[in-house]
Amino acid sequence: MKKINFIPLYLQVKNDILSRILAGEWPPHTFLPNEFVLAEQYGVSQGTLRKGLEELTLEKYIVRAQGKGTIVAPIDETSSIFPFYLLYDKNNTRIFPSTETLKTELLSPPVHIAEKLRIKPTDSVMFAERIRILNGKTMLNEALYLSPSPFPPDTLKNLKTLPNTVYAFYLKEFGIRISHAIEQMIAVMPDESDIQRLNVKPNEPLLMVCRISYDVNKIPVEYRISKINSQEYAYKFKIN
Amino acid sequence: MKKINFIPLYLQVKNDILSRILAGEWPPHTFLPNEFVLAEQYGVSQGTLRKGLEELTLEKYIVRAQGKGTIVAPIDETSSIFPFYLLYDKNNTRIFPSTETLKTELLSPPVHIAEKLRIKPTDSVMFAERIRILNGKTMLNEALYLSPSPFPPDTLKNLKTLPNTVYAFYLKEFGIRISHAIEQMIAVMPDESDIQRLNVKPNEPLLMVCRISYDVNKIPVEYRISKINSQEYAYKFKIN
DNA sequence: AAGTGGTCTAGACCACATT
DNA sequence: ATGTGGTCTAGACCACTTA
């Protein structure tokens, strides 16, 4: 007889602590109770609790410091649990542009995008065109397709617009955490919309980044195409 | 009094096991002795030994399977300890091109590259031009600058050539493991050498990838510029 | 049934930051 | 001096694979 539903204690503890953090019981920058108190609360040993906290540390939800305590990490688009901001200026400092949404609509996606989101081409996705702005200059021209499947039914229908920081929004509103993404980089020549919005010349090549974002269950959440003037801004990556 | 040289037992154990793996005592695909035997050998408890093995698992040197045992992972360029191969063909399967070195020489690097390698512009680096070939087609045009600093003195002087799989070579010959890298992606128009070697038209943009590779001590080892026809081949990345 | 890694405990002691 | 997280132990039991 195979037990199919065995969940280790430390994972149950970990998930419960995580849900309490996300629910706001311990806001960012506050301290969690110490190991012994938490272990007592959950009725487990210090070692078991610690193993749960270690995983939360690896996943960047908390930061532990010997002698001090366990601190809840901030959750926003630029924090380490969303390592998806990869833009740098010429001084090599990370930049966080603001976003302007030009258009949103519900539509049936192109076939190749439906495939990537693993949905039927007849399903409707939320489509958005956005530009990203820094110091008054448009630096990024973006199109975004939001899959219906990870969200509760009719969510997209009722979404009239998207906030600037979408990943934090998915997490806070729907508990959907973007845990990883696959990006493909392509060099392209600008189209009409790029030339206008990014203020580039027709013969200046752009970096096009196509990103599929996945939640913790490996369900595709979003497909995003970004075009950047890579002479002006650096798109950088750390591999390890 | 501050102990500055405190090294946890589990790290000592881990490093010793790793050095034994790299020395070839346990070749790839073979089983390590089980936890209790190893713990006994090192004179530590099962828990301490396990913590060392857990880190080696995270770093992909070994693979552990419940009920089976602990297996040594293969070490070559394409294995998971070198996650630096990011090329895919149109069928979305990873490709591993072969390499042809066109030229190597010792020279003083350009200032901006010396900066990135954190060496003096008067230091001499090994410079190589290489192309990478798949199915008879050149798909990648590459320049490579190898820093002298992580290597023993005069190593570069005596290196007449570079093998195809340089990262595995650094590890095997000098114990230098490339642990992470920073990549910057730029869209460029092809130069004369690109047009010839990659067989592209002058108006077809290329993806240029500039990579700085670091060893475990965060010392820059290599600076590499690769140019790819990104219409033909996909350059992909996983973020998490 | 035997052997492996995975989980869990209860308790001790160490290193570090703060008071 | 106190309280925190970090290391370490010795032993028990569980889940999984293979024979």
From TrEMBL, chains A, B:
SUPFAM superfamilies per UniProt: Chorismate lyase-like (SSF64288), Winged helix' DNA-binding domain (SSF46785)
Top-level taxon of the source organism: Bacteria
UniProt key word Transcription regulation: yes
Key word Membrane present: no
Keywords carried by this UniProt record: DNA-binding, Transcription, Transcription regulation
Gene Ontology MF annotations: DNA binding; DNA-binding transcription factor activity
Start and end residues of each HTH gntR-type domain: 7-75
One Pfam family matching this protein: GntR
One BP term from GO: negative regulation of DNA-templated transcription
PANTHER family attached to this UniProt entry: MANNOSYL-D-GLYCERATE TRANSPORT/METABOLISM SYSTEM REPRESSOR MNGR-RELATED (PTHR44846), MANNOSYL-D-GLYCERATE TRANSPORT_METABOLISM SYSTEM REPRESSOR MNGR-RELATED (PTHR44846:SF1)
The protein, known as: GntR family transcriptional regulator
Organism: Desulfovibrio litoralis DSM 11393
Taxonomic lineage: Bacteria, Pseudomonadati, Thermodesulfobacteriota, Desulfovibrionia, Desulfovibrionales
